[in-house]
């Protein structure tokens, strides 16, 4: 069992996380780079694919970025005809986003490559590890907002 009060164990956890994420993103990064795109473009494509008709405002909220941070990559995806933007029929002030056929194909290709890696790793780690991995990532994502507000006093010291 990991003892996260030990610096060596903290480093092992972080190193494993860093290298795992690097492996997860490597092929997708290469595929995106060949098109002049990056991970931010992939995140935009992913969330629009998850919820077609997503509003600009909702996309800003789910990505947790500013309008300025979203403007350039979204404009690039629109110009490349990977994303389409339409005015909402009920509220002309709202813009709805959807993937074009090309955008959907790219998003599916990226997701398929990354899921092959995830499926292989989870199959290798076993069913219990797979459930633990999902629970770990859900907890990590849920803590993201609260961690920036206050440090949890029960967490291991980083200075150990």
TrEMBL record:
Stored InterPro entries: HTH_MarR-typ, MarR/SlyA-like, WH-like_DNA-bd_sf, WH_DNA-bd_sf
Domain of life assignment: Bacteria
Gene Ontology BP, a term: response to stress
Residue span of region Disordered: 141-160
Low complexity: bias regions: 151-160
SMART domains in UniProt: HTH_MARR
Domain HTH marR-type: 1-142
Record SUPFAM superfamilies: Winged helix' DNA-binding domain
Key words, A-Z: DNA-binding
Entry-linked Gene3D superfamilies: Winged helix-like DNA-binding domain superfamily/Winged helix DNA-binding domain
Coiled coil: none
Pfam families: MarR_2
PROSITE patterns found in the cross-reference section: HTH_MARR_2
GO MF annotations, alphabetized: DNA binding; DNA-binding transcription factor activity
Name of protein: DNA-binding transcriptional regulator, MarR family
Species of provenance: Pseudomonas oryzihabitans
